[in-house]
Structures are given as C-alpha cells and as structure tokens.
C-alpha cells in the first residue's frame, strides 16, 4: 500500500473530525467521563483494528486516550488503511 501524498492527506484530514497530522502519522485525542469508559473505548477500537488488520498506537491516562495511526508496511507513513481505521474509530467514539 502506497503512502498518501501531502495533498491527499490534507484532503482526507479535512473530512475527518479532530484528526491531525503529527509528523508521519495522524493523531486524535479522545476524552471520557472516567477510566472505565476510556478503557471500554480502547477495547472496542481494538476489535475494529484487528478486523481491519491494523494496529494503532494507543496511549491512555485516566479518562483520555490518544491514538496515532501509520502503516508499518508503507514505511510508517499514512495510507488509505489509516484513513479507513480513523473513520471506524470515529464511528465507535460516537457510541460513547
């Protein structure tokens, strides 16, 4: 899978809520009422990620979760695979 060009990435990010470029990755921070809810979100994201054969970087402190996406097979750059997972993550977040 080929990395997105800068123009492609800019275009894709304009269609995503809260995601931003962070070096060679895209990243979004999420906040929840408590640790239990944040952890539940991480588990749900994990199932979607596994279904897509993708494994995001997840970081959790109490009620906040930070997720970074890049495709290892594309040299750690952002691909359509990352955009698709970002959309799935956003859909999961809407259920919380």
Summarize the structure in words.
The chain has 96 residues and is an alpha+beta fold. The chain has a single domain, classed as Transcriptional coactivator/pterin dehydratase (Gyrase A, domain 2), CATH 3.30.1360.20. It is built from three helices and four strands, in the order αββαββα. Strands 1-2-4-3 form a four-stranded antiparallel β-sheet, with helices on one face. A hairpin with a 2-residue loop joins β1 (20-22) and β2. α2 (35-51) packs antiparallel against α3 (80-94). The chain is globular. The chain starts with 5 loop residues before the first helix and ends with a helix.
- Element order: H for helix, E for strand: HEEHEEH
Rg: 13 Å
The number of E-state strands comes to 4
CATH class: Alpha Beta
Form type:
globular
**What order do the strands of the largest sheet run in, or round the barrel if closed?**
1-2-4-3
Assign the structural class, choosing from mainly alpha, mainly beta, alpha/beta, alpha+beta, or little secondary structure.
Answer: alpha+beta
The percent range for helix content is 40-55%
**What is the percentage of strand-forming residues?**
15-25%
Please report the number of helical segments.
3
The residue ranges in which pLDDT falls below 50 over 5 or more consecutive positions are none
Determine the N-to-C terminus distance.
32 Å
């Amino acid at each position: 899978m080929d990395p997105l060009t800068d123009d492609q990435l800019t275009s894709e990010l304009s269609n995503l809520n809260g995601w931003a470029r962070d070096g060679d990755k895209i990243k979004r921070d999420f906040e929840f009422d408590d640790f239990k809810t944040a952890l539940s979100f991480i588990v749900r994201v994990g199932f979607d990620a596994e279904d897509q054969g993708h494994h995001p970087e997840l970081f959790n402190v109490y009620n906040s979760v930070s997720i970074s996406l890049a495709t290892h097979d594309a040299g750690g750059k952002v691909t359509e695979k990352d955009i698709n997972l970002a959309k799935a993550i956003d859909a999961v977040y809407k259920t919380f």
